[in-house]
Write a structure and sequence with these properties.
This protein has 87 residues and is mainly alpha-helical. The protein has five helices and no strands.
């Protein structure tokens, strides 16, 4: 019985906690990773990293890029805008 409890504490609980952490992280897209993987499909990142824009301007830019073919859903668009505002 004691050995079983030790296995539960040392193996099962850490795996469960790791699974919960991964699920929480999966819920919010990584803006930097999206910029680095999706924006580079059409252009390099120099204009993205050097532009100085407010939130509304970034939202319009991202919206325009999506209209031109960037593959970003609404949640990903928000994550990209947040990242660009804080880079």
């Amino acid at each position: 019985m004691r050995k079983r409890s030790l296995v539960l504490v040392s193996v099962v609980i850490p795996i469960l906690l790791l699974s919960l952490l991964m699920a929480a992280c999966a819920g919010s897209p990584d803006g930097q990773a999206l910029v680095e993987s999706r924006c580079i499909v059409c252009h390099n990142l120099v204009p993205v990293r050097t532009a100085v824009k407010n939130e509304e301007e970034w939202q319009e830019t991202v919206k325009r890029m999506v209209a031109l073919g960037a593959r970003l859903n609404k949640g990903e668009q928000s994550a990209v805008v947040s990242y660009l505002l804080n880079q």
